[in-house]
Protein: MmcQ/YjbR family DNA-binding protein
Organism: Rhodococcus opacus RKJ300 = JCM 13270
Amino acid sequence: MPTWTDVVAIGASLPEVQESTSYRTPALKVAGTLLARLRAESDGGLVVMCDLDEKAALLAQGAPFYTTPHYDGHGSILVDLESVDVAQLTELLQDAWRIKAPAKLRKRFDQTWREWRGPGRRPHAGPDPHRIGVRRRA
């Protein structure tokens, strides 16, 4: 069962992610833009930014992903930290970073990745995508 400390550690592995606050709750941001925030204790869960297609796919999976009427139509998913595994959470936060990081930062990160992996390699083609903060896509 991941905790907020685990969320922060995953965020720290992503370029230029900082711990902050949002709506008076702990949050992670990249370039001042929200990636994820811990909801108030009475509400429970973690809000993670995503696109609407990904949200629909995650909701179809059921737990640990859910939404409330307040978040309907919004590019974010609610995550039950008590039932999500660390690998799912890591992938979700990496995707949020890709969506919310400024284009220049993503480009710089992709360039650094290419230099590290060698020419002709795509940013998500490495053998251990979680080590460098990029999700491998099919």
The domain at 4-102 is CATH 3.90.1150.30 (Aspartate Aminotransferase, domain 1). Residues 124-138 have pLDDT under 50 and may be disordered.
